Amino acid sequence: MTELIAGIEIPDTGAAADTTRLVSETSSPLLYHHSRRTFLFAALHAQRLDLRPDFELLYIASMFHDVGLHTPFSERVQRFEVDGADHVRRFLLERGYSADAADTAWEAVALHSTPEIPARMGPEIALTSLGVLTDVVGFGYDDIDPEAIAEITAMHPREDFKQGFIRELHDGVVHRPHTTYGAINADALEHHSPGFPRINLVERIMNSPWAD
After folding, report:
1. SS (H, E, C) the chain
2. What is the pTM of this model?
3. Where do the structural domains in the chain lie, given as residue ranges?
4. Which of 69, 92, 105, 108 could pair with 172 as two cysteines, CB 3.0-4.6 Å apart?
5. Mean pLDDT over residues 120-130, rounded?
């Protein structure tokens, strides 16, 4: 049976179902609900902006975008966004998707927290980022029907999301702090781990081995 939330159809392909099951089993409830809201807000923005993404690919990217914060997806020491991107690419290729589709999903996940760049790219990439921004910082909140927001948050409740999400960002990278250089997680580490030695570009330039 087709699942509808706020008028948005949840893709019901085999890969989409596998994605839902995988993320629900390996992520925290907070990140699972966040990822579902990300897709739903992204799809609503697609309607508003008259964009026509591949909704299955948009769903899979939205659901995978934060899996790099959790361990079976954090075996390599790298940025959590890249970690999740590597896994979504492998997930799709293993199921026979084209290299182009896998690369699109990789870019959507890898760039979801990068300011401005996703908006200049394909619809799946732009909308994944926009869905994340809406759920995390309220970007585009006023452009969405309040009844749709109410239905989405009833199905996928926030439940102290602000504090919980900051903690998830911290806990997912506290063991690999060097990967947060230039990334959003540095803010969460600074918030929850006093004394975190934040790296900045000026220091890297000044401490480089060049004499001049």
Report:
1. CCEEECCEEECCCHHHHHHHHHHHHHCCHHHHHHHHHHHHHHHHHHHHHCCCCCHHHHHHHHHHCCHHHCCCCCCCCCCHHHHHHHHHHHHHHHCCCCHHHHHHHHHHHHCCCCCCCHHHCCHHHHHHHHHHHHHHHCCCHHHCCHHHHHHHHHHCCCCCHHHHHHHHHHHCCCCCHHHHCCCCHHHHHHHHCCCCCCCCHHHHHHCCCCCC
2. 0.92
3. 3-157
4. 69
5. 98
CATH number assigned to the domain with residue range 3-157, chosen from the 4 options 1.10.3210.10, 1.10.530.10, 3.30.565.10, 3.30.70.1230: 1.10.3210.10
Which pLDDT score is estimated for 46? 98
Name the nearest CA neighbour of 59 among 83, 31, 38.
38
User: Tens digits of per-residue pLDDT, 55-92?
Assistant: 999 999 999 999 999 977 777 799 999 999 999 999 99
How many percent of the chain have pLDDT more than 70?
100
Match 């099951």 to its residue by tokens: 21
Nearest to 97 by CA among 132, 56, 126: 56
Residue whose structure tokens are 């934060």: 66
Q: C-alpha angle 38/72/85, rounded to 5°?
A: 50
Amino acid 90 reads: R
